[in-house]
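2024-03-11 09:14:02 DEBUG pipeline.ingest accepted 1 chain
2024-03-11 09:14:02 DEBUG pipeline.ingest length=164
2024-03-11 09:14:03 DEBUG pipeline.predict start
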Amino acid sequence: MSVIRVRPAARADQEAALGLWLALHREHEALEPRYRLAADAAARWAHDFPEWVRSDHHCLRVAESDGSTLVGLLTAHAGWPVPVYAPVSFVHVDDLFVDPSARGQGLGVALLDAVRVWAAGIGATEIRAGVLAANPAGRAFWGAQGAEPFSTTVIVPLEEYSDS
C-alpha cells in the first residue's frame, strides 16, 4: 500500500493539480450533460492557481502518493453571505477530487479534514459545497460527513422561447 499524505498545494503542483481538476470536471460532464466548462476554463484556472496558493482566503490541499504523485485535490475559499442575510463566516469547497485509482482509502475525508482545520483557523462556522444532483457518490460522501441539504438549484429550459 502506498503512503499518502495531505499537504498544502505549492506552485510546483500546478500542472498535476490542473490535471486532477480537469478529471473532476470530465466526470461531472459525463454525469450531467448540462454541466459544461468554458473553452478557456483550464487556462483561467491555471492563471489563478499561483494567486490561490499564496492567498489567505483560499485553501488548496493535495493528496500525494509515495511522495511525488498527486492523487487528490481540494480547493476552497472563505465566504460571507450578501449583506441582506445574517453574517455567517463560511468556507465554500469549490472542488474535491480523488483519482479513481486512489478512492476508498479515506483521502476525501483526509482532504476535508485539512480544510476543516483551515476553516476553523480563520473563524469560519461552517463549510458549504455544491454537489451535482446526478452524482450519488458525491451526495453520499457529503452526507457521511454530516452535510445536510441547504438549497437546491433548479433549471427551467427555455428552448421553446429561443429565437434560434
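2024-03-11 09:14:41 DEBUG pipeline.report The CA atoms of residues 91 and 98 lie 20 Å apart.
2024-03-11 09:14:41 DEBUG pipeline.predict end
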